[in-house]
Amino acid sequence: MDDVKDILESKPKKARKKPVKKGPTKKELQIMELANNTVLPDHYITVWTESDLDELCEWLSKLSKLGKVAIDTETMGLDWWKDEIVGISFYAPHRGYYIPLKHKDHVEEGAGEVGVDYVKCLDKTLVASRLKPLLERYSLKTIWHNYCFDWCALKKWLGIVMPPAYFDTIEGQSLLDENEDKQLKPLAEKYLRVPADTYSKIFGSRTTFDTVPILLNPATRTGNLSAYYATKDTELTYKLAEFQEKHLNMPHLSKIKSLMFNISMPFLDIVKEATYDGVRTDVEYLVGEVSPKLHAGLDELEAKIKAVIGDINLNSPAQLAPVFYDKLQLPKMNKKKPNSTDKKTMAKLMTGLRIFTADLEGTLKRIEAGEQSDEIYYAKLFKDNLPYFLKPDMYDKAREYFKMCLDLLQNITTYRKQSKLTSAFADSLPTKLDDDRIHPNFKPSHAVTWRMSCANPNFQNLPSKDGGMIRRAFIADEGRLLASIDASQQELRWLAHLSKDPVLLDAFATGKDIHSITATSIYNRLHPEKQVTYEDFQAYRGLIDKFTDADGGVDSSKITNADIATLYDEKLIVEPTEEAFVEAVDFGKYLDFIRSAKAKATNFSVVYGTTQMGLADNLLVTAEAAEGYINAFYDTYKGVARWMTVERKKILKTKFAESYGGKKRRLYPEIGLWERDKSYRHWDKKLQRGELGSHWALDSAYRQGINSLIQTPSAYQIKKASIDMQPLLKELDCKIILWVHDEQILDVPENIGMDNLRRIADVLCNTIQLDCGMKSDIEVGRRWSQKMSDDEVDSLREGDFSEC
Hints:
Layout: H1 2-9, H2 26-37, E1 44-46, H3 50-66, E2 68-75, E3 85-92, E4 95-100, H4 124-135, E5 141-144, H5 147-158, E6 167-168, H6 169-176, H7 184-192, H8 199-203, H9 225-248, H10 254-277, E7 279-280, H11 283-309, H12 317-327, H13 343-358, H14 360-368, H15 374-384, H16 395-427, E8 437-438, E9 441-443, E10 453-455, H17 468-471, E11 480-486, H18 490-499, H19 502-510, H20 514-526, H21 534-547, H22 561-569, H23 578-608, H24 612-619, H25 623-636, H26 638-654, E12 656-658, E13 664-666, H27 668-678, H28 681-689, H29 696-731, E14 735-740, E15 743-749, H30 754-766, E16 778-781, H31 790-795
Parallel strand pairs: 1-4, 2-5, 5-6
Antiparallel strand pairs: 2-3, 3-4, 7-8, 9-10, 11-15, 11-16, 12-13, 14-15
Helix pairs in contact: 3-4, 5-10, 6-9, 6-10, 7-9, 10-29, 11-16, 13-14, 13-15, 13-16, 14-15, 18-19, 18-26, 18-29, 20-23, 20-25, 21-23, 23-24, 23-25, 24-25, 25-26, 26-29, 27-29, 29-30
């Protein structure tokens, strides 16, 4: 009976289903149809046999003496470290070769003709051994489109270490027209008049190159889509390089040509080494310490937030908007996007909430009185957009409610920032590491200003303050250190050099703080009744560190009678009392706030070409206030204003801005739009009435042009310094591994000593002789962002370094 019960209660075994053979997908059918309709040109040769390889090697041997060759690799994906090489293609007039190295249909033995009846790729070891001595010849001029990627793939998968490249069409395009797409196919279509679809358009995002049809129908020369696609890419690269070089050889582009061959290509050679070497990453620290801390902080924030608004996706604007504007009844302060929850809208909301939480009744009275100030401007904007009226009997509850909303929005803002950092670095980095090293995808010329950028990961987005814990995950190898050498205040120094402004030049010569000079001017404009000098401004700020506690409050216990007497003698207080001294410290805190919150942003708004409204939004002030700050800047640095006037005239005349070194920032689209609008009939009428103001497109051209005149020389300086450093770096056994804004991170031996690091920094400072000079700060540690003292660095030095 028990046996029967057991049988009845036991679950019946599921019958095994026979595997259903899936047919080809729609995309696979499309690819097969394309292959059957694509004719492989006669001069495209697929290397299937050793005899074919002999022919290729003989061809390459001749080219190394006489000409140039374009080379491209095909890989399983976009990560050269993980994605295996599938094939290599070569092209020089009028012949192209493709060597398949990996294919899903590969067999060791097959019947019939290889490449026609079956797929058998040549052994990689054989191919590498034959190609290596030919490709590593310095006499061979090689042409590439994305040299760094292909160089790294060849070294990683075949052990071929290519010599410096002759030409990279991405670099050529960035110099000839930085506004254009850098992808090969759009460039070929525009300049070579050759129709060419991108890989993703032809094959889709899921098709790997080892699955692309490769067998040839000899009768029709169709079917071998792999060789056609790969070799055509290489042919397009060669012809695009010819096109670009033809223009670079034009007399009026001699400076651009010099940049290409003396800066871009030599710098690219340094970048590909840094890409391949990568940065050692402390995975245990990331996984065991950084990630848990960041996630614990996120979990805590998430719990606080969801306790107020319920269980929603905090990274979803679509889910946050109804909470903000329907449930919490917050005012809609973004006119263009009323339901926006973006960073700027959040900042405006928090400003309004902060003002009303601090003094609700007083703020309402100031609004009624018509007070004109930044604070009241945002308070009125907040009040006018509330979906309800604030009545006196609501004040107590409203104050409490606003405080709750303020805390909520602050937590959401912090959550967003920490969530991005956690996702981009703490969570994703460990999954990208095979060898405990991260290999960033550097983009030396993708930015229109020629600045270095980076992806996977984007080190430029890793803040030094909030991202400090993550920065410490990047470490030196055993017996090595990481040295950070930067170009201090690089953009402002270039502004001083180019504008010849006497105030800026004097500030750098005498060691004055630029931001404090600007802040003094802003303060004096805001408070004409109580003017301060730069020296007084700095003296008041100097009180903060000496006489405040850890929370920023004034610590009266630190104040002595001697301190009070000194301040009184310096006429920084009107009477020798402790109360006056405390007021002076608070005044110093206010001045420091103007420096950090207003002056610094104003200085960089000029450098980066931020609009008046952009500065107003960043600082959460009125447009009039932002205009006042900018005017304070120009009143202080009159030489800058004069220089910009001259440069704007040049930009309007030539339609481009030419920076130090000859790099151009082309502004034809913006100025063309202005000229088109200017030709309209209503424009002439406005001109006659004297109503013609600025035009947004022309203003944009001016801002971008002026910005490039500062940013591009800064990029030029870093690239040239990297090149100039190479002999000394080799002598000292050092190498550059990262570029982050104006900072270079070097891998150095631990016994290098500070004197040798200063020698390296001197190269950076003297690469270009600026009127105001260049200063460099050096930080050294076993981890990035950790700083050892000079004595600690020197204590690691043993014996004569030249013997190491």
